[in-house]
Amino acid sequence: MAVTWTRAWWRWTGGPTTRPVERVERVDGRSRADEPGDERQAFGRWVRKRPRVDGGKRRGDGCGRRSLSPTWVLAVGGPQPAGRGGRVGGVGRDASRLAGLQRRLQGIAGGLAVYDEAPDNVSSSTYSSTPSLPGCRVAPGRRADAGLPLARVTSNRIDVEALAAMDGVGRFREVLPMLVDPVAFAGLVDGAAGGCRVPSRGMERHRDAMRSCGVASDAHVRPVFAMKAFTTPKKDGRTSRLVLDARPLNDAMYGPPSMDLPNIRDFINEVKRHRFAMQCDGVSYFYQFPIHASISRYFGIGMKGCDMLLDVLCMGWSWAPCIAQRASNVLVRDLGLAWVDNFLVLGGSLDEAQRNVAVFRERTQAARVEVRAEGGGALWEVCSRFVCVGVEFDLAAETQRHRLDPSWAERWVDGSGMTAVLSGRATARQFAEVFGGAVWATDILAIPRCHFAALLSFAGRLGGRMVGAAAHSWDEVIDVPPSTRRELGALRKTVQGNPWVVGGTAEDSGSVLWTDASSWAWAALLEAEGRLVDGRQGVFAGPDAGAHINLKEMWALAEGVVRLCWAPGAQRCRVDNAAVVGAVAKGSSSSYAANRLLSRTIRAADRRKIVLCPGWVPSGEQQADPYTRGASLPRFPAPLSASR
């Protein structure tokens, strides 16, 4: 089939690249992207993927765009067969842009604004209904975010050099060159990248606002990347925040290192070790980080008339959260915790908390970090009951406790997304939002996610289907299985009650459970006071004989807990399978069958007030190993195996 590139297509996609277009056609109509190998088609040309170096996540195809799919792009107006993954025109994001234009034009013709779902805190009168349009699905109408004024942001700029001087660990100094060293920054960007220009629609009205607060300035040099910027509504529903679609830059450079963000459960446990706290957050925190003038050329905003360059850190760049979190960790080192722009200064007593607040205040002043009180309280105020990062803490109680933020729980329980999912007919976007809330709720309320095996399984299947799908696919209606709805309904009822989670460490039960499995047998032994006091063993038969070894190891642990463990308290479990140890520790697995088995095990342990404390041991030290390979159980009590 002959392929014709039209001038309209080149104008739409930003024009040809700096290299000549190489046309590669095959007799069978397939492109070389279907063939195995390390080459991808990128924007009408072939480039070789760059290898990963030193563990870096170098991505990109030379121009910062996703590669084209097996089907060549045809001229605008011609036939456009679907490509890989059901993408319109078979060209991934580029064709999705064309399809998005068609949907937007249809929406305009119907008096609609084709955007995402309306937020719950905005009046429904602001939004229009969305009739079905022939030939395509349109997202529910939403007010155009570009119509909202940008929220006022601070013009304060952090002294990053002074902040780096406070860094006793050196983690912030590792990422500081990404703000101040153009040579180091350019060294992480693909040298062949750049030249792409993506226009930002409706952003011209915000040009003066961005100039006045120093967020961006007019580009007097050609940007290396001129990317799309857009706005999203803030929680107040009256203002918006600026976001840069920095995917072209993200795809063309190495990925960031670890954020050093604490696990939410570790965060909660650390807070509950104290009695007093002071919390505040950074004002427009990302915008307080200045970037070097030569680096700002990589953060261009495609605008009508004259492009703009960002002068500060932006949302949308993959390195921005890492830089912000590591800077926050410097400010709260040995004083408390930080969650990106949320600062929590802790103390075991009122005097200790006030001393730590004074030190934190000195650090923010030395680094010129502007902060404000969180939740409408007074700045630098020390208290014992507060809400932080969506969690309500009560440190004044006899036993420190926590629960979900009541306002968040109410929004999640009564939200329109939850109603749609429980009805069985919801969009993929609605389900993703509800599922994200479910993950957060189970983490905060310390509920093992293995109890929701059907929910996890359906979310995994849906996620696999949505990888690489066109943007409008998220607004297609899906059928939610009854088992998933039942589990989600049970979790909704728990969140609606929003119980307090009391801290404390369970006392040691005084015993150790040893479990192991081979390809055909399992064994479990109970150790107490340095001797083996009980045990069970068995043979896998029927369908269980062909199960994965990880599932067999989980089965052995379940049999040991159900048949041998009776003393309440912390039950130490010793397993030589790292996958099982990890699943028990986090309360969930990637396997549906393992989640069902783990759920029954944990429920049995909960009835006996047993807390499972898994630990890995080498196979050479596993006491149950010989009894999975043909040896008979000894007469109990029996001494521990000296060779193990």
Describe the structure.
By secondary structure, the chain is α+β, with helices and mostly antiparallel strands. Helices cover 31% and strands 18% of the residues. The protein contains 19 helices and 23 strands. Strands 22-21-18-19-20-23 form a 6-stranded mixed beta sheet. Helix 17 (549-564) runs parallel beside helix 19 (592-607). The radius of gyration is 28 Å and the shape is globular. It starts with 6 loop residues before the first helix and ends in a 5-residue tail after the last strand.
Question: Topology, please?
Answer:
Blueprint: H1 7-13, E1 39-42, E2 45-48, H2 92-109, H3 160-166, H4 171-175, H5 177-180, H6 182-187, H7 207-212, E3 216-218, E4 226-233, E5 240-245, H8 247-251, H9 264-271, E6 276-282, E7 300-301, E8 308-310, H10 320-331, E9 336-339, E10 342-347, H11 350-367, E11 371-373, E12 385-388, E13 391-394, E14 401-404, H12 406-414, H13 416-423, E15 425-427, H14 428-444, H15 453-466, E16 477-479, H16 482-497, E17 501-502, E18 508-517, E19 521-528, E20 531-539, H17 549-564, E21 569-575, H18 578-586, H19 592-607, E22 610-616, E23 638-639
Parallel strand pairs: 4-7, 18-21, 21-22
Antiparallel strand pairs: 1-2, 3-8, 4-5, 6-10, 6-11, 7-8, 9-10, 12-13, 13-14, 14-17, 15-16, 18-19, 19-20, 20-23
Helix pairs in contact: 12-16, 13-14, 15-16, 15-19, 17-19
